[in-house]
Design a protein that fits this description.
Layout (H helix, E strand, L loop, with lengths): L2 H7 L1 E4 L5 H11 L4 H6 L4 H14 L1 E7 L2 E15 L2 E13 L8 H15 L4 E4 L4 H5 L4 E2 L2 E8 L12 E5 L5 H11 L6 E2 L2 H8 L7 E6 L5 E10 L2 E9 L2 H12 L7 E6 L15 E6 L2 E4 L2 H7 L12 E7 L9 E6 L4 E6 L2 H6 L1 E3 L4 E3 L2 E5 H8 L5 H6 L3 E2 L2 H10 L12
Parallel strand pairs: 4-5, 12-13, 16-21
Antiparallel strand pairs: 1-2, 2-3, 3-4, 3-9, 5-15, 6-15, 7-13, 7-14, 8-10, 10-11, 11-12, 16-17, 17-18, 19-20, 21-22
Helix pairs in contact: 2-4
């Protein structure tokens, strides 16, 4: 049988918990998760299978089947995300895998397109995922939107911080109401943060050691203002995340780390703030590294632009311009989006082609002027509106085509903030 003939005999189906064995087997094969690897991580095959049950219970999972054999799969989580202090519905992608003998047949492209279509129907105008291959996901419309910084500090380099007015309490990490409420408050005021429901919290802790601890910082009014998730192991203080709502909490949490000084030789940790830690230390000669973390994608440009919180001011009022977009996967994004910043609101008109734009004119007092345009692809549009890269930089590296006046306008209407994203799924 030829591959072309085989392709016609495959069927796409929605998975449920009865498919857990095949779902888990495909993931383990694709990502080379052997029994020895699981043993090193402190897991076994049964515990991994149980860990995957929530995906099939709570996510929309699609797969291709060769008769009764699952050969390709993708999972969609329904989530929420803060974009410049407005909460967006977001589709989280995970569990992406295909057996190698079925690769090159367009199976994953079809699964992705179907999943993105479901997101569009569910009004999820953005999507996020952790990339195991940045080039692969870039070719399908995703782009880098956040970084993960890691650091290593020797014990004598810890910041000397005076005592704060508040206090620290260690808590049970699972289902702690104060921890959940604190993070929810943080997420709803922090650009890029995932708004965690129970599923997201379960994913946040899923692969962590049972010995990992959480401590909350409370201000003088006994209100939680920050937390640290950490593990003390092999003379190393390992920080999974340090999150704080104000400077007092940041100082209080570092004071808590300092209080353990006799118990470790160095501190290793993650930093998602997009600000280097070295500047805050008296001895800033530390090891810090940065790497791309999560990727994002605008699923439905029309809906996204209607919801986006543009930073409008007096100078932006009255401007009209168009985005001409290329999307490698979604035809509904391959259109022209005309934005009119009127006195009261942002008006959006969607055209089917650049030819329609050419025929449109705006009438000024003295002459007819063509509507200025910005030409780019869905990847660049995504990273720009998420705030990861600024319009001026993207124009400089030829990722978007626009006049200098248009670049200046984009700089003024797109809020300045890089995403804080500390989750994994």
């Amino acid at each position: 049988m030829t591959r072309q003939n085989l392709r016609t005999k495959l069927t796409m189906k929605t998975l449920d918990t009865t498919h857990i064995e095949q779902f888990n087997a495909l993931l383990r094969y694709a990502f080379q998760v052997t029994d020895s690897v699981l043993s090193e991580l402190g897991y076994n095959a049964e515990s991994i299978k149980q860990a995957k049950y929530p995906i099939l219970q709570n996510a929309r999972v699609l797969g291709w089947f060769d008769k009764d054999k699952l050969i390709s799969q993708i999972a969609l989580y329904s989530m929420k995300m803060n974009i410049h202090n407005r909460i967006f519905e977001m589709g989280g992608i995970t569990g992406v895998a295909t057996y190698p003998e079925y690769s090159g047949m367009g199976l994953m492209a079809d699964l992705m397109k179907e999943t993105l279509s479901i997101m569009r129907t569910q009004k999820q105008s953005i999507s996020c995922l952790y990339p195991y291959s940045i080039p692969y996901y870039r070719s399908r419309g995703w782009e880098i939107i956040s970084d993960k910084m890691t650091f290593s500090i020797k014990d004598h380099q810890l910041p000397n911080i005076s005592a704060q007015n508040g206090m620290i309490r260690r808590i049970e990490r699972d289902d702690d109401e104060e921890l959940i409420a604190l993070y929810d408050r943080f997420a709803k005021s922090t650009h890029g943060a995932l708004v965690r429901d129970k599923l997201a919290w379960d994913e946040y802790w899923r692969w962590d050691s049972d010995d990992e601890m959480v401590a909350l910082y409370y201000d003088k009014n006994d209100v939680p203002q920050g937390y640290i998730a950490y593990l003390l192991e092999d003379d190393v203080f390992k920080i999974k995340e340090m999150l704080y709502c104000n400077e007092e909490a940041r100082r209080g949490l570092w004071g808590y780390v300092n209080a353990h000084k006799s118990m470790f030789d160095k501190v290793e940790g993650n930093n998602f703030s997009n600000n280097t830690l070295a500047f805050l230390l008296e001895d800033g000669h530390i090891k810090e590294s940065i790497q791309p973390y999560f990727m994002g994608r605008i699923v439905d440009i029309e809906q996204f632009l209607r919801d986006y919180p543009f930073a409008l001011d007096a100078e932006s009022r009255g401007h009209i311009f168009a985005f001409i977009i290329k999307d490698p996967l979604l035809e509904w994004n391959n259109r022209v989006f005309v934005l009119n910043f009127s006195a009261q609101k942002v008006e959006l008109k969607v055209l089917e082609s650049a030819q329609e734009l050419d025929s449109m004119q705006i009438h000024s007092q003295a002459k007819n002027e063509r509507i200025p345009s910005v030409k780019t692809d869905i990847q660049t549009l995504t990273t720009m509106f998420f705030g990861y890269k600024r319009p001026s930089y993207l124009a400089k590296i030829k990722r978007l085509e626009a006049s200098q006046d248009m670049i200046n306008l984009l700089e003024s209407i797109i809020p300045r903030a890089k995403p804080y994203f500390s989750d994994y799924f």
